[in-house]
Amino acid sequence: MCSQSYYPYWKVQAPSQLGMRRAVEVADGFRLFATVTTSKHDFSHALEGRLTYSGLWRKVMLGEPNREDMVNIVNGCYPSLDTISSKLIDTFEKVNSLVSYQFGGLNLAGGFSDGILHRFSLRDLLKWCKRIVGVDLNFEGLGLASSGYQFIYYEAADIFAASLSSPDKRQYVAREIARILGLFHQAETMHPTDKPIIQARHTDLQVGRVTLQCSDKPGINSEGAFC
Q1: Which residue intervals define the domain Midasin AAA lid in the entry (predicted)?
Q2: What is the architecture of the domain spanning 65-192?
């Protein structure tokens, strides 16, 4: 929060939290609002806001967006994806179906935590779309090149499949994503499970998604201790 925007409201109450040096003073009636999307698979809606601040939180319950809502949102945020938005949403819904019904919920931290059934949300879909439009791909017409779908697959596997704790589940979801995108037979070679792709060039070194620029100056003093 920006202190300048909320300063007129910080007057009376003083909610505090352990580990904080000072409290934040707020006026009577001041509330923090958070939107919460719920579904019949989510039973975390009974949980309060944020422990010490739960008395100041007001949650606005929203139903899950339907397909038409998602199409409108994706096309509104990223108009260039209009020709492939339906395929992207098909993939997103298929992944959520696999996670919810076949795997019993998304395992984000190696275990079922706090009784919350994790599923991918609209935020994950929009994150995927943002990565896609960040690359120079031609979405006009019906002829998106296979290399374009390969990139879309890479990003989907990174966002959706990589979040699963089991290697078998990751591979299964990755294969399903590739099948929907028409890349089923290439899935195993395009998404290695043991190590990232490494490319060494004259100007930089690429390790998976990370690019390291080369430098003429040594980065480590070979005579000193390594730390």
Answers
A1: 69-183
A2: Up-down Bundle (1.20)
